[in-house]
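Students often ask why we bother encoding 3D structure as a string. The short answer is that it lets us treat folding as translation between two languages. Here is a chain of 191 residues written in the first language.
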Amino acid sequence: MADSSASHDIERRASARRSILSVLGIASVAVVIDQLVKIWAIASLTLGQPVSLVGDLVQLRLVFNPGAAFSMGEEMTWVFTVLAVVVSGVLVWFSRSLRSTPLIVLFGVFLGGVVGNLIDRLFRPPAFARGHVVDFLQLKGFAIVNLADIMLTCAVIGLVLIMLFCPRQFEEVSAAAKGESSAARADEHAQ
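And here it is in the second language, the structure alphabet:
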């Protein structure tokens, strides 16, 4: 019985490690793509000057955004930085319980979007942890966004669709998280 419990624990830890590494790998690719596109936008676009892609419907327009969506909270840049760090940690923490490939991909894309904008906030002017996010894609009548924003939006839409149409995948994450904590408690009581 002890061998069964030990092998289950080893498999659970290996599975958690695979999930975390998968989420981090996907997030890393997303961050690299986001940062490369932002470097291109800064090098190729003139600040505030529109470049038409699809008439007035879709334009490239470089701006540096100190706030959140629609430039809200421009005086609260540091709050968005702290929030992004916390969200990143929570995503990595919960990724250990993921067993579903779609959830792993969506968590990775979401984390990549968060970290892509966090890098801007940490390292772009005007100051560390108060940097402005590089935005460059404008849809008519909508905010100017970047690739990280698009990743965040797509990941949220994907997660909502899974919640609506495949809720069992989230139940499995919850059960795995609870199982890990009860297994840890059982180990403590056994000692």
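Translate back mentally: The first strand starts at residue 51 and ends at 54. Keep this in mind for the problem set.
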